[in-house]
Design goal:
By secondary structure, the protein is α+β, with helices and mostly antiparallel strands. It has one domain: 7,8-Dihydro-6-hydroxymethylpterin-pyrophosphokinase HPPK (Alpha-Beta Plaits, 2-Layer Sandwich), CATH 3.30.70.560. Helix content is 22%, strand content 25%. Strands 1, 2, 3, 4 and 5 form a five-stranded antiparallel sheet that branches. Its EC number is 2.7.6.3. One of its GO terms (molecular function) is ATP binding.
Length: 123
């Protein structure tokens, strides 16, 4: 199964991204990352911006087993997942599954490119 996932950090983000990518590479040979972007935190009080990226990976693991692996990596990199407030605190790394990707996803009409006829008129 191929999954779309996210990676985020606001504690030493470059260091933790590098380490997380190293561990993630052990889960899949087919791993592709977007460019990294800086974002402002949402839903938490902090002055530390986040570094975020999307990635896809192919794996035979179920979504539940993959999330367990992501949690294990987060803990290896210093995230305290036992803290009930961990979702609103600064974090060295956050790895989430956004959803499965299919080989031929149905693209909504509004995202499809405009088609033009041979005279260059939009249809």
């Amino acid at each position: 199964m191929k999954y779309l996932c996210s990676l985020g950090s606001n504690i030493e983000p470059e260091l933790h991204f590098s380490r997380a990518k190293h561990y993630l590479a052990k889960l899949s040979e087919n791993l592709e990352f977007s460019r990294d972007i800086n974002t402002q935190p949402v839903g938490m009080k902090t002055n530390r911006p986040f570094l975020n990226a999307l990635f896809t990976l192919d794996t035979a693991l179920s979504a539940e087993a993959l999330k367990q692996e992501f949690n294990r990596i987060e803990e290896l990199l210093g995230r305290d997942r036992s803290d009930p407030l961990c979702s609103i605190k600064d974090r060295p790394i956050d790895i989430d599954i956004l959803g499965p990707l299919h080989e031929n996803p149905e693209v909504p009409e509004y995202l499809q490119p405009l088609q033009t006829d041979l005279q260059g008129e939009t249809q």
